[in-house]
């Protein structure tokens, strides 16, 4: 039997980075044992002086860890899905498989005030850090130098965590924090990330690159249609074109439109159609709205003050149940918000349309062979 060629950095660069399919999740950088990759403007590039960044001597020598870590080059969904859900997903599960769904919000008014929706992510993690269930959380933290730009951060206490509550709609490669957790010798960490970032952690585990993900005990996924390019959107559109100084902004929210809240209390609205052109190119290749591979997935779905939670794994269920029993979360049935459930279903299905049935890489693996064959046949028969 002819073995498929083992891919390495050269292929990863040519097929994923140079084509702008790369989402900058940083899993390849975390996986690289030779430390020759680094993230520059969300692109992994070689830092050993090799030009034009596409030739790695270690790849020639047989190292393929960066390519194995890439969820865009070849997501190991056949391993990831059973590991998280106990089964493969069926084509009709647009938002991925889950055990239960609930609405949640923080009972601590400080968290509720700072959270993006119901503050459920922060409340759950704060409880776990306070109880010693976790000794760290890998989150996106607002930069101290650059307003509205986030950096991956390892936080060790609930006070530190509170400062990171809320959403920034630009990209932040939270898996890069896995290295910080290893350096700090953390044993039990949670990772928060948008859909691709939650899959990135699973991809590392599925490919046996376990050193970095061994301490990860909980993955919290954030539902996500797209992220915005910081320079183009926050600087170009919001600050320069609209004349809003970034330090005047207290919150950015997306609820069918982008709502920019200022310190004065005024809300400035940007229609989604005007914001969409600033989405990062790589997001257009992402078929996963609902962060399918997280232990729990969270979204606001047009609601005010509540977080919708999909509980996907036994681990997620256990954390959520114990945090709720401890009184840090208030729950109510998801069915009380049929509008939000409708939004979730619609957005998840819409995002599936990003699957290209002819894509030789990642994205075609998100549906079954039968569905792919049907999509290809339909595309081929189109006039
Ligand atoms: C880029 C992005 C796009 C999103 N798009 C949608 C959407 O289309 N529809 C929808 O229903 N929900 C979306 N969400 C999720 C939503 O904004 C909330 O994060 C979610 O409902 C949880 O709310 P919460 O109040 O419980 O979280 P909080 O308690 O406020 O905690 C939020 C957590 O998110 C982390 N975080 C903030 N920004 C980022 C970032 N850029 N990358 C990674 N982690 C981050 C913080 O570190 C914090 O730990 C998006 C989130 C992000 C970051």
* Number of discrete helical segments: 15
Coarse morphology:
globular
CATH class of the largest domain: Alpha Beta
Low-confidence stretches: none
The molecules bound to the chains, other than polymers, are:
flavin-adenine dinucleotide
CATH topology of the largest domain: Aspartate Aminotransferase, domain 2
Question: Termini distance?
Answer: 39 Å
Provide an overview of this structure.
With 383 residues, the protein is of the alpha+beta class. It has two domains: 73 residues, Alpha-Beta Plaits; 224 residues, Aspartate Aminotransferase, domain 2 (3-Layer(aba) Sandwich), CATH 3.40.640. Helices cover 34% and strands 19% of the residues. It has 15 helices and 13 strands. The strands form three sheets. It has an eight-stranded mixed sheet, with helices on both faces. Strands 8-9-10 form a three-stranded antiparallel sheet. Strand 9 and strand 10 form a beta hairpin. Helix 7 packs across helix 13. The longest helix is centred in the C-terminal third of the chain and has 15 residues. The two termini are 39 Å apart. The mean pLDDT is 93. The site of flavin-adenine dinucleotide has 34 residues, from helix 7, strand 4, strand 6 and strand 11.
